[in-house]
Amino acid sequence: MKLKHTLLLLAGLSSFAAKAQTMQPSMTDAPAHRVAFEHKPGANYFITLGGGVGAMFLEGNNKPSLTDRLSWNASLAIGKWHNPYYATRLKLVGGEAFTYQNFTGLRNKNYFVGGHYDFLFDVVNYFSSYQQDRVFHLIPFVGVGYEYKFDHTDPKLTNTHHVTANAGLQLNFHVAPRVDLFLEGEASYSGLNVRYHYRPNYSNAFRVSAQAGIGFRLGKQGFKAVEPLDQAYIDGLQDQLNALRAENAELSKRPANCPDAEAVAAPVEHANDRFVADKSILFAQGQATVSKDQLITVFDAADFALKGEGSLVVTGYIAKNETRFKGLAEKRAKAVATLLTDQYGVAADKITVEWKEADEAPYGSAQLGWNRVVIIRSK
Q1: pTM of the model
Q2: DSSP secondary structure letters along 295-313
Q3: Helix-strand-coil percent breakdown of the chain, rounded to 5?
Q4: Average per-residue pLDDT in the chain?
Q5: How far apart are CA 296 and CA 289, in angstroms?
Q6: Is the pLDDT of residue 11 over 50?
Q7: How crowded is residue 252: how many other Cβ atoms within 10 Å of its Cβ?
Q8: Does position 125 have pLDDT exceeding 90, yes or no?
Q9: Any idea what DSSP says for residue 46?
Q10: pLDDT tens readout for residues 231-263
């Protein structure tokens, strides 16, 4: 029987140790670029709609006044934040442009449509700690794409296809849980011709535009910070595993069947004289859900109570790095008590539930991970 319990405990600790390597506590005070974050493929998407004005520059385009060169443009973009400071987007653009001959000053009007794939970098989130509800974001970006220019007023000009390169800066204002407003300036170079060329007396390659618009955050939003567990905690788990392996090896040397012995009357035991050993149910950082590998411990405590051998005291604890999670120790204790009553049938009047603050944790700072625990004691 002892061998069976040892093997069960060994299996449970092995499972927890493996999971402990990937448990994910928060480091909300550190700059975002020094913190690892969960990556969720279906989360943190966004869509933006923008409109504004632009003007062509270089050569003959610089001679007229800027107001004479301004024309409208619009954009639609969809993208995803891969972490708090890095995103990609596909941006579709369109509008009209005015270009001027180098010598005569004759104006040509044409329309353009295109798209480019951009890489965005949030400077504020990179250097600051991550806050999902931060209001202001400063976001430079670069990208590459394609543009098609058509419907020229100068009949000598043909429709053209171009590879484009662009760069810009966005000022983003988070004004509601799923709504952003933005101002964006962008410079786009489209002089890399794929098919057909502009006549040499026109320069239709360099455009600067400014837009204002609105953005909507789609699906699940926000990032969860992660960090490895402290090495002392992992070493403590490994020491326990090694001790259990040694004990199991010693038990395996004993005979499977013991020789018969004379029957001896068992001493009378009183329920109040028997105590269950302290039983620890460990939790992930910031969590109050009992994992499957900890259920054997809860079952063992329930078995003690169901046999009428005594009542139970269930005490929840938190580690010092979990104080930001309000009521976590209480939630942990009540989660274990609920398992004892609802899943294992222990009467509620046999369970006393209590919880402690971080400064009352059962272990020292060197065993920080062990303080994320609920301890069950006999009463």
Answers
A1: 0.57
A2: HHHHHHHHHHHHTTS--EE
A3: 30, 40, 35
A4: 82
A5: 15
A6: no
A7: 9
A8: yes
A9: E
A10: 666 766 777 777 778 777 777 766 666 555 555
CB 362 within 8 A of CB 373: yes
What is the average per-residue pLDDT within 301-316? 87
For residue 353, what are its two tokens? 């539930």
CATH of domain 2-23+229-256+271-378: 3.30.1330.60
- What pLDDT sits at residue 196? 55
Buried b / exposed e along 81-117 (16+ C-beta atoms within 10 A): bbbbbbbebebebbbebbbbbeeeeebbebebebbbe
Residues of each domain in the chain carrying CATH 3.30.1330.60: 2-23+229-256+271-378
**Which two three-digit tokens encode residue 86?**
């890095």
Give the architecture-level CATH label for domain 32-218: Beta Barrel (2.40)
Residue 134: φ, ψ to 5°? -60, 140
Lookup: tokens for 11: 């299996």
Q: How far is Cα 197 from Cα 350, in angstroms, rounded to an integer?
A: 87
Residue type, 349: D
Say if residue 101's pLDDT is above 90. no
DSSP letter, residue 327: T
Check residue 199 and give its pLDDT.
57
Would you state the structure tokens that stand for residue 253, as one six-digit string?
């040397």
Question: Taking Cα atoms as reference points, which of 224, 168, 283 lies closest to residue 44?
Answer: 224
Q: What pLDDT score does 117 carry?
A: 97
C-alpha closest to that of 56 among 116, 92, 109? 109
